[in-house]
Design goal:
This protein starts with a strand and ends with a helix. The strands form two sheets. The protein has a nine-stranded mixed sheet with strand order 3-2-1-4-5-6-10-8-11, sandwiched between helices. It has a two-stranded parallel sheet with strand order 7-9. 46% of the residues are buried. The chain is of the alpha/beta class. α3 packs across α4. The protein is built from seven helices and eleven strands. The model has no long low-confidence stretch (mean pLDDT 96). Helices cover 39% and strands 23% of the residues.
Length: 222
């Protein structure tokens, strides 16, 4: 029983739901930040404490109040594949920045930002406009969060996400890493392990499926 209080932005998202289950099983308390009150029952059923708050309209003070007493925050929110460039900026970039501002104000140092393969790299002209907007937003979020001396940050860049069952076998390393897939359940397990061990502070990590157990992979990036 570790009994940490972990606040997850984007608490109804698929990775966040897996993360809630992992944290709850470990004896931690997941606090799910959700925009839609219709999702309260769903996240509660997974073991989370729901907090209805909209990252696109909340103030730093409002969010800091919710974060008070947390041991870590995880940014797992996203505007979604059907959103336009504007919302990718207001959610994927500005939401991550707001969470960082609020974490600093609330005195919560540990911050895990779930980003994406492709972030931090040049964006090819021939890519889909929505994907380009997404990668630019993720890159800007990474740049902001990783510049903060008052946060014990880790940036995690998963490869192509799948809904397969968890494998507990991954490749986890600082860039570069060959592109690949990874299950959302394994991403969640890696995030939980990073928080539990305090590993990879100040590091950007690439994540795909692989041949190393999650425990060993996280221990190797300490």
């Amino acid at each position: 029983m570790t009994d940490k209080r972990i606040v997850i932005a984007g608490g109804h998202g698929q990775i966040a739901q897996h993360l809630t289950q992992v944290l709850t099983a470990h004896g931690d308390r997941a606090v799910s930040l959700i925009r839609n009150s219709d999702h309260v029952d769903a996240v509660t059923a997974l073991g989370a404490l729901p907090q209805v708050i909209d990252l696109e309209s909340a103030s730093v003070d409002e969010l800091a109040d919710v974060l008070a007493g947390a041991d870590a925050v995880v940014f797992a929110a996203g505007a979604g594949p059907n959103s336009g460039p504007e919302r990718k900026d207001t959610v994927d970039r500005a939401g991550a920045v707001l969470l960082a501002d609020a974490a600093e104000k609330a005195g919560v140092r540990r911050y895990v930002l779930i980003s994406s393969f492709g972030a931090g790299e040049p964006v090819a002209d021939d890519l889909d406009e929505g994907w380009k907007a997404y990668i630019r937003a993720k890159t800007a979020a990474e740049e902001d969060v990783s510049s903060r001396a008052d946060l014990d940050w880790t940036v995690l860049r998963p490869g192509k996400l799948t809904d397969e069952d968890p494998t507990d076998s991954v490749s986890l390393t600082e860039p570069p890493l060959e592109p690949g897939e990874v299950t959302r359940a394994d991403v969640a397990a890696v995030v939980a392990r990073l928080i539990d061990t305090g590993s990879a502070i100040g590091k950007t990590l690439m994540l795909t499926s692989g041949s190393t157990s999650i425990a060993d992979a996280v221990d190797a990036v300490r």
